[in-house]
From TrEMBL, chain B:
An MF annotation (GO) of this entry: NADH dehydrogenase (ubiquinone) activity
InterPro entries named among the record's database cross-references: NADH_quin_OxRdtase_su_C/D-like, NADH_UbQ_OxRdtase_30kDa_su
Gene3D superfamilies, alphabetized: NADH:ubiquinone oxidoreductase, 30kDa subunit
Highest taxon of the lineage: Bacteria
Origin organism lineage: Bacteria, Pseudomonadati, Campylobacterota, Epsilonproteobacteria, Campylobacterales
Domain NADH:ubiquinone oxidoreductase 30kDa subunit: 25-111
Pfam families per UniProt: Complex1_30kDa
Name of this protein: NADH dehydrogenase FAD-containing subunit
Length: 361, 114
């Protein structure tokens, strides 16, 4: 009988951005079993949304669930409440909301790519990508007034309009970023060191993607054609040039490439939005109090973000259910680790782009 | 969104008859406290490649009735099941406390009475 040893990874570890603890059961260097503990940063946001804040305030509370995809949290909640109020936003509001969501996707994907580069020992590439990412952070700050917690979306519209100066900044920075992403694609595809670390490592098979309900870039890298942008009609994504990005090998390399190609697609979509911005008000009256139950799905950078909101015509809501992408991805992640080398675990984990702040909420 | 009411005793059979892994994406398990000791349990699915197709199976239960686990059918369901065990203090077959709260915690924060 072979002996096994247990090796923990986290909750505090040099390769982790956020607290999560894996307990790996290893046979020599090979991982044969995994246990995950994800609850280190539980803050009781769902409870706060129904006990401490009125429905008009909750959009700003749920934005605090996550620092990277704050905009998708406030958007999902806002859409759910607007459905309960019978409010439909005009096209200008929809376009401005899509613009911020896609900008968010770009900078979030770049953070993940930087982190996977760092885990491959490529510190210089990490610094380079994080530097390039500032182009998008600057645009988001200029549009919303905030760098991380944007508080840009509110019930009935958005809080700021685009000015000609902002449009010029968006075009300039997206143009600069396009060249940099082209260079990154070449580097991630051809660099020998990165290929050793990424190709054929941390494979999620398509069958397992279905069985474990993988989502977002994790699923699309395995060839599972799922993207909420193509599965909901809340936003006119077809009109702005959305394309579903799919890979087939399901390894770290494929996940990196889904993200890189999605950045290219998101840049094109942002340019289309700015060039074809409909005329209209940015804030309209959404009257009444939420009554009934609504569900909303939005494609966050890590995959499907799901909100269920139930109200009974009062200022306080009955239930706000938040299902975040990383929460759903944990079972698939655990499956990918099995059979992998322990030494690859940090790089595999980084390629999942886990957000524990979202997961534990 | 379609909502389909089922009973707790038949949940596994009802969802087994409906769920095809390559057709339906399992979103999550959810609980909503209805007051007076009642709770609405929801099992939520969306359909791959079809716009706005969300199906919610739901059953009304109380705090103490054991809830069947879907893990034998949907392996990823354990996360949502552990969450409702923590948040509502429910008993789900095979699901342990301690996902978010301490394992020995007596709290159930999303119950209406708490």
């Amino acid at each position: 009988m072979k002996k096994t040893i247990q090796i923990p990874l986290g909750s505090q570890h040099i390769s982790l951005l956020e607290p999560i603890r894996f307990k790996f059961e290893c046979e020599n260097e090979k991982i044969i079993g995994v246990d995950a503990d994800v609850g280190f940063v539980h803050r009781g946001v769902e409870l706060a949304c129904t006990r401490s804040f009125e429905f008009k305030q909750v959009g700003y509370v749920v934005a605090r669930v996550c620092g990277l995809c704050a905009i998708t949290h406030s958007l999902s909640y806002t859409l759910a409440v607007e459905k309960l109020l019978g409010f439909v936003a005009n096209d200008r509001i929809k376009y401005l909301r899509m613009l911020m969501v896609e900008l968010d996707r770009i900078h979030s994907h770049m953070l993940c790519l930087a982190h996977t580069a760092e885990n491959a020992g490529f510190e210089a590439l990490f610094m380079q990508i994080m530097g390039d990412r500032e182009l998008i952070m600057d645009v988001q700050e200029a549009i919303s007034g905030n760098r991380v917690q944007f508080d840009y979306i509110s019930i009935g519209g958005v809080n700021r309009d685009l000015t000609p100066e902002l449009v010029a900044l968006i075009h300039k920075n997206l143009g600069l970023l396009t060249d940099k992403i082209d260079a990154l694609i070449g580097l991630f595809d051809n660099n020998w060191s990165l290929s050793l670390k990424y190709k054929g490592v941390g494979v999620l098979r398509l069958e397992d993607a279905y069985i474990y309900n993988a989502l977002g870039p994790l699923a699309r890298a395995a060839g599972l054609a799922t993207d909420v942008r193509a599965e909901t009609s809340d936003f006119p994504y077809e009109d702005i040039g959305y394309t579903m990005i799919l890979e087939s090998t399901g390894d770290i390399h494929a996940r990196n490439f889904v993200r890189l190609r999605e950045i290219v697609n998101s840049i094109a979509m942002c340019q289309n939005i700015v060039n074809n911005l409909p005329v209209g008000e940015i804030q309209e009256k959404a009257k009444g109090k939420p009554n009934g139950e609504a569900v909303v799905r939005v494609e966050a950078p890590r995959g499907e973000l799901f909100y269920l909101v139930r109200g009974s015509g009062q200022n306080m809501l009955d239930r706000v259910r938040i299902k975040t992408p990383t929460f759903s991805a944990i079972p698939a992640m655990m499956e990918v680790f099995k059979g992998s080398e322990y030494a690859d675990a940090p790089a595999i984990l980084a390629s999942f782009d886990p957000c524990m702040s979202c997961t534990a909420k | 969104m379609r909502k389909i009411e089922i009973t707790l005793s038949t949940v596994l059979n009802d969802i087994r008859a409906f769920y095809l892994p390559k057709e339906w994406h399992f979103l999550s398990v959810n609980g909503i406290d209805l007051g007076e000791g009642k709770i609405e349990l929801q099992w939520i699915f969306s359909k791959y490649g079809v716009k706005d197709e969300v199906v919610i199976y739901y059953a009304i239960s109380d705090y103490d009735t054991p809830i069947p686990s879907l893990v034998s059918l949907i392996p990823s369901a354990f996360m949502g099941e552990r969450e409702i065990v923590d948040m509502f203090g429910l008993k789900v077959e095979g699901a342990e406390r301690g996902l978010y709260l301490d394992e020995d915690s007596l709290a159930h924060p999303l119950r209406g009475e708490s």
